[in-house]
Every structure is written in structure tokens, then in C-alpha cells.
Design goal:
The chain is α+β, with helices and mostly antiparallel strands. Among the domains are: 28-114, Tetratricopeptide repeat domain (Serine Threonine Protein Phosphatase 5, Tetratricopeptide repeat), CATH 1.25.40.10; 234-352, Immunoglobulin-like. It contains 12 helices and 10 strands. The chain has helices at residues 3-13, 33-48, 53-65, 69-82, 87-99, 103-116, 121-133, 137-150, 155-167, 171-183, 189-209, 213-225; strands spanning 18-25, 234-242, 247-254, 260-261, 273-275, 285-289, 295-306, 313-323, 329-337, 343-351. The strands form 2 sheets. It has a 5-stranded antiparallel β-sheet, with no helix packed on it. Strands 5-6-2-8-9 form a 5-stranded antiparallel β-sheet, covered by helices on one side. Strand 8 (313-323) and strand 9 form a beta hairpin. It is globular. Residues 5-12 have low confidence and may be disordered. Its EC number is 3.4.-.-.
């Protein structure tokens, strides 16, 4: 083969490279007369109905949108005085304190969730979400362990525990939890399928670390036995999870063609596929691109609906590139969606 032909062949078959970047792109509101009038109207509504949570929540969010963080904090604290056991207001106060640069006080505020509701697994889960977003995986794990003790039948909690174990490097414990979910015939396929996907990633890691060909063949056989739809080696895999029940949060992936792959268009022209559309809370939902095309994949989250009167949605995106291969990389991104209808672009994946 001539040098020029060799170069062309090398370029043609060179594996793609991936750059994964966090973004936070959401519709913004401009502080103007309309927003000021909305704030004044909400303040009046609260005077008339001080215990109406939807008005309280809307006022705090409007003040945040207007850039009035001190006023937003005061409004949230006034709300908490009459509604101390409300998870939403406690987390709002912590969020505002974080924005104001008082991280230590924010953590104390977040921790109050579990002090007030020590026997509530949702409170434990809510604090775990915040701790994961802050990178405090040890304490997040502890909160999820308490939540699991309070609700041992909840396999989604076990899935979250396994994810944190993975991120802490406790691969054997994570594998055992994923294996238990996969083996549980009472678990929904919406949960068992992503558990199989994550388990295959763990097995692939064990295979990479194996010392002998026999061991590598053993792990390959375990991966094959999972019979994964979409396979275990993919260019891109994205997982979406959130921490609230009776909520519908959707994963959107816009491929380099500009095509959106989501719940009503699950198969993209470039081969990317959405697995699962969880409408009852927590997730996970996942997207797989076996062979990624050059360009940008934008990953967005949409808050489609809620079965409660007032719920925000918080959670994480996990982006995996070169899944199941020697150079696999995983990236985790937190997000917050304050109200139904909100969308946020959380990450982008550049493929070259």
C-alpha cells in the first residue's frame, strides 16, 4: 500500500474522539415591568392566602428570576416559618444560600430536611441528590442507605445506591446491587433494562482489569448472557434519573443533524435510540448511539408533568462515551427543573 493510500485508510477507520462538556442553557426571564407586576400580584395573593404553596413557590422563583436573591431568601424563609416540613422550601433556601456564596449554611439547611423528616425515605433521597451534586458521595451513600432501610422494597433506591457505589469505586458492591435488580422478576423492565446496561459496564471494567485470557473470556460470557438490546459497546450512552415520585421528566437528545430523539420519536436517523419513557417518577431513561456521527450531540432534560400540585424535579445525567471499551469515560451532571414545562440543556458531546 502506498503511503497516501495508507493515510487515507487510517483516517477512514480511525475511531472517533469525544469531548463532553457541561452546559446550563435554559430560557431566561428579563427583569422588567411585567415581572415586577407578577411579583407584586403574588405578594398580594400570599397576603390573601398565606398557606397556599403554589403562590409561595412562584414568588420565590420570580424573585430569583429578577435577580433579587436577598428578597427571594427572605420570602423563602417566611414560607418555611409556616411550612417547616416542606421539602421544596427547604431545598429552595439551600439553593439560594449556595448562590449567595454561603455553602456551609446551605449544607446545614439541606441537612435539616432529614432532621425534620427522619423517617421519610423521600427526605433522605432528596438530601442525597443535593449531596451528589456537591460531590459528597460518602454522605450521599449514607442517606440512600437510610432510605433503603426505610423502604427496602424500592428497587429504584437500590439502583441509585449502586450508581453511587460505582462512583466511589466500590465495583463489587455495585455489581451485586445491579445483579439483584436484574434477577428480580417483580421489578419493571423499565428498571431491569438500565440495570443490565450498567451491569455490563461494570463487567467490562472487570474484563479490562483481568489478568488472564480465561478471566477475560469469563467476563465476556457474563456480558453476552445479559443479551442487551443495543449491545454492550457503544459510542455514546446517556442516562437520566430524578428524585421525585409521580413526575414525568423526559430525556431529549438532539443529534448533529438537528433531529430530536425523545419519547415520541425514539429512533433517530443517525441510529440513536431512546430506551424507556418513565412517566411515574425517578427514571431511569437512556439513550444509546452505537456509532456516533461527527458533530454535536446536545443533551436536554424536559419537565413534562407532575402528579402533585407543586413539585420540582432534580436529578442527574450520566454521559458515557466509548462504553464497554478500554477508553470508556463517564461524566455526571446535576440539573434542577423548578416547574412543569421547564427545559434545560445540560451537556453537549462533540464527536470528531
Amino acid at each position: 500500500m502506498t503511503p497516501s493510500l495508507w493515510l487515507c485508510a487510517t483516517l477512514a477507520f480511525a475511531p472517533p474522539s469525544f469531548t463532553v462538556t457541561a452546559v446550563d442553557e435554559r430560557p431566561t426571564r428579563v427583569a422588567n415591568a411585567e415581572l415586577t407586576a407578577e411579583i407584586e400580584q403574588l405578594q398580594q395573593l400570599i397576603v390573601e392566602a398565606p398557606r397556599e404553596r403554589t403562590h409561595r413557590f412562584a414568588l420565590v422563583r420570580a424573585l430569583i428570576d429578577a435577580g433579587e436573591l436577598d428578597q427571594a431568601l427572605a420570602a423563602a424563609e417566611a414560607w418555611r416559618e409556616i411550612d417547616a416540613y416542606n421539602l421544596v422550601v427547604v431545598r429552595l433556601i439551600g439553593d439560594i444560600q449556595t448562590e449567595l456564596g454561603d455553602a456551609k449554611q446551605a449544607l446545614r439547611t439541606y441537612s435539616a430536611v432529614t432532621e425534620l423528616l427522619s423517617e421519610d425515605p423521600e427526605a433522605q433521597r432528596a438530601l442525597a441528590t443535593v449531596l451528589k451534586a456537591q460531590g459528597d458521595l460518602d454522605n450521599a451513600l449514607a442517606r440512600l442507605q437510610v432510605a433503603t432501610q426505610l423502604r427496602p422494597e424500592d428497587q429504584r433506591l437500590s439502583f441509585e445506591l449502586a450508581d453511587v457505589e460505582l462512583r466511589r469505586g466500590n465495583y463489587a458492591q455495585a455489581a451485586a446491587r445491579f445483579e439483584a435488580i436484574v434477577a428480580d422478576e417483580g421489578a419493571s423492565e423499565q428498571l431491569r433494562h438500565p440495570a443490565k446496561q450498567r451491569l455490563a459496564q461494570v463487567y467490562a471494567g472487570f474484563r479490562r482489569d483481568a489478568n488472564t485470557d480465561a478471566q477475560r473470556r469469563e467476563w465476556t460470557a457474563k456480558i453476552d448472557a445479559l443479551a442487551l438490546e443495543g449491545g454492550s459497546q457503544n459510542d455514546i450512552k446517556v442516562y437520566l434519573t430524578w428524585d421525585t415520585d409521580r413526575t414525568d421528566v423526559d430525556l431529549w437528545v438532539i443529534n448533529p443533524k438537528g433531529e430530536k430523539v425523545f419519547y415520541s420519536h425514539r429512533q433517530g436517523a443517525f441510529g440513536g435510540t431512546l430506551y424507556g419513557d418513565v412517566t411515574t417518577g425517578y427514571g431511569p431513561e437512556s439513550f444509546t448511539a452505537k456509532t456516533a456521527k461527527a458533530g454535536t450531540y446536545a443533551v436536554e432534560v424536559n419537565y413534562y408533568g407532575s402528579g402533585g400540585a407543586m413539585k420540582e424535579a432534580r436529578g442527574e445525567l450520566l454521559v458515557v462515551v466509548n462504553e464497554g471499551r478500554e477508553d470508556e469515560q463517564q461524566h455526571t451532571f446535576p440539573y434542577v427543573l423548578p416547574k412543569v414545562g421547564d427545559s434545560v440543556r445540560v451537556a453537549k458531546i462533540e464527536v470528531k
